[in-house]
Each structure stands twice: as C-alpha cells, then as structure tokens.
Amino acid sequence: MTLRTLGRRPVLPAVLAAAALALAACAGEEATADDGDSLGTVVVATSADDFTGGQLAYTMAVANGYFEEEGVRIENYITDTAPNTLQALINDQVNVGFLSLSTTAQAVEQGRNVKLAAAVQITNDWSLIVSTKWLEDQGIDPQEFAGWPIEERGAVLGDNALWATNSAGGLWERASAYLADWFGFDPETDVQLAPLENINKIAGIKDGSVQVWLASSPDNRLLVESGDAVEALSTQELVDEVPLVANARAAETIVNDDWAQDNRELAEAFFRAYQRGADFVVENSVDDILAIAQEQYADFDVERIRTVVEVNKENLPPDSRHSEEAIQAQIDFAVASGNIAEPLPIDEVYTDEYLPAE
C-alpha cells in the first residue's frame, strides 16, 4: 500500500505550556521526604479509575508490598489521559507515569528530560476492529468480511466512517490516522477520528454508531468473542503488515529523569520494586495474578480483568527492557505519525540505568 507522508499533527499544545496541575506540594519535594526507614515518596501518575492492564507489573508490585519492602512510599496521582500525564511529568508534579514513548518524544524534542525507563509491552496488543452491526447495515456479511484480503477489508472503512480514538492528538488518534492513511484514506477528510470515552466506544461498536476502533485489551478480544466486532487487522497482522503501529507501544513506564538523577537511590529502589512486580507476572500463573488483581479492582468485571491479565502476561518483557531496535521503532513511529519532526537519539528518550542489573 502507498503511504503518503503525514503532516505534523498538533498533538500536545497544552503539554508544552506552563500551566500547572494542582498538587498540594511539588513532587520533587515529596520525593525527598524521609520517614523512618522510608527513602521517600514517589508520585506516580496513573489512570487508576480503570483497569487497562498497561500497569500490570506496577499493580502487582503495589499489591504485594514490594515498594514498602524497598523503602518507597507511593502516592498515586490520577491524571487519566496521556497529555495530562506528560504535562505533570514535565512540570515536576509527578515522578513516574505510564504513556507511550511517541507521546513522550514530543516533550524531549522541546528539551524536557523525560525518558522511557521500564518497558511494559513487547508489542502493542491492539487490533483494528469493525462493528458487525455497521457491516450488516452496509449489506456485508461480517464472517465473510473477516476472511477477505486485508486490502479489501480496508477498502470499506472510509467514506466518512467514524473511527473511535482516545484523547485528541494522543497515541490512539495518531496510530488511527496512520492506519487510515496506510489503507489509502486521507485521515482528515475520508474518515472521522472521534475521541470518545471507553463506555461510548463499546456501546457504539455494538449499535453501529462507531464503525472502526483501534482497540486494546480487553475490549478488542471481548467484542470479537461476543460477535459485536470483527477484525480488520488482527494484532498479528499489525505486527506483520504495519510494524510501526505494532511497535507504537502504549503505557510504557516514563520517568522524569531530572528527578531520578537527583534522587538516584529512591529511583533505583522504585524500579527494583517495579521489576519484582514484573517478575511476579512472568513467574506466576494467570489465576494467581487474577486473584490479586481482583482484590485490587473488586468493582470490575472478572472476565475483563482475566482477559487483561492473559494478554499482558504474554506480552510483558521479562526484564522490563527494550532492545535498541524496539526503541528505534518507537522513534520512527513518532516521526511517521507527525509527532516529532526529526528522529531523536535513543539515549535522549530511553534509559535502563535505574533498573536492576541484568
């Protein structure tokens, strides 16, 4: 397929502004506080209102008490969206957050010292799903559609179809725009990229008001299993056919590197506990992980949590590290999707110096 060069998208204008999120005290000051055996507090930006699985190693480290054992107090600060998380990181309001490297790279391009410090995903677990209700309304049999060649599946996804995304300008919107372009559509005129809440995406896929969604675990798997959606591009097809999108990993563990350099003992203790959480995910069964996750997220549907655990257990880098090739692929996606103008050196966006020695 022919891919035109995407224009640079105005991804995070607010991130680079001086506006501050309200916190009782600066995260840098919180981090250095000492209380008995504690090394200090690490303020972590999270979307704790939802269980997406992108923080599975972190969740297990918290649940098993690893941070306390390493002398680290955790203060969770809910930011909900990647732009808010990055803004908090670059404004020294939080020390660690979960977002994509391609989103982080824009701040690095502007001179901010934030880096990917622990790898969360081997590849992204998303797939491009299509509403079966909408296909049926178009006179297309969903099961036949699923067996079509990729080019034929993609051909029906334009004509002003609504593609659901997350926050405007975020990773999902940029990856969706990239895929629309890869299929031969102009992402600004041939499709509608619409930021929607997760509950509205799910309902929209079911009733056909949302036609296309680049969805992650657990929603992509559950909607396909329920018959409400079929895949236009499976996770494996993205790996094989559109590797830049497959390598655009979400929810990586990003650190404010200025804070980490100034608080190295605390930062190393944080990532030591984090790695113990990753080890727990790798070494234990889905059922064992699920039992703990259910305690942490008692209000969430068990099937959703199980799906997330299954997918992310398979997709977690055992040592929380990426190869140079994997980092370069994320930088390449940031350039290709218009998030940064030029490639950045790997050492400006990635560090593994706070992780335990291999």
Please sum up the structure shown.
This protein has 358 residues and is α/β, with parallel strands linked by helices. It contains 19 helices and ten strands.
What is the element layout, followed by pairings?
Blueprint: H1 27-31, E1 40-46, H2 56-63, H3 66-69, E2 72-78, H4 82-90, E3 96-99, H5 101-109, E4 114-118, E5 127-131, H6 132-137, H7 142-147, H8 150-155, E6 161-165, H9 171-182, E7 191-195, H10 198-207, E8 212-215, H11 219-225, E9 229-233, H12 235-241, H13 243-246, E10 252-256, H14 257-262, H15 264-283, H16 286-296, H17 302-314, H18 324-336, H19 346-349
Parallel strand pairs: 1-2, 1-3, 6-7, 6-8
Antiparallel strand pairs: 3-10, 4-10, 5-8, 5-9
Give the key terms.
D-Maltodextrin-Binding Protein, domain 2; 19 helices; 358 residues; 45% helix; 5-stranded mixed β-sheet; globular; alpha/beta; disordered N terminus; single chain
| Overall domain count | 2
Main sheet makeup? 5 strands, mixed
| Count of helix runs | 19
Q: What is the arithmetic mean of pLDDT?
A: 87
Q: In percent, how helical is the residue content?
A: 40-55%
Strand order of the largest sheet: 2-1-3-10-4
Radius of gyration: 20 Å
By CATH, the superfamily of the largest domain comes out as Periplasmic binding protein-like II
The assigned CATH architecture of the largest domain is 3-Layer(aba) Sandwich
Structural class: alpha/beta
Q: Which stretches of 5+ consecutive residues score pLDDT under 50?
A: 1-33
General form:
globular
Class of the largest domain in CATH? Alpha Beta
CATH fold-level label of the largest domain: D-Maltodextrin-Binding Protein, domain 2
Spell the H/E element sequence. Answer: HEHHEHEHEEHHHEHEHEHEHHEHHHHHH
Q: What fraction strand?
A: 5-15%
What is the strand tally? 10
Pfam family, one: NMT1_2
Keywords: Signal
Organism: Jiangella mangrovi
Protein name: NitT/TauT family transport system substrate-binding protein
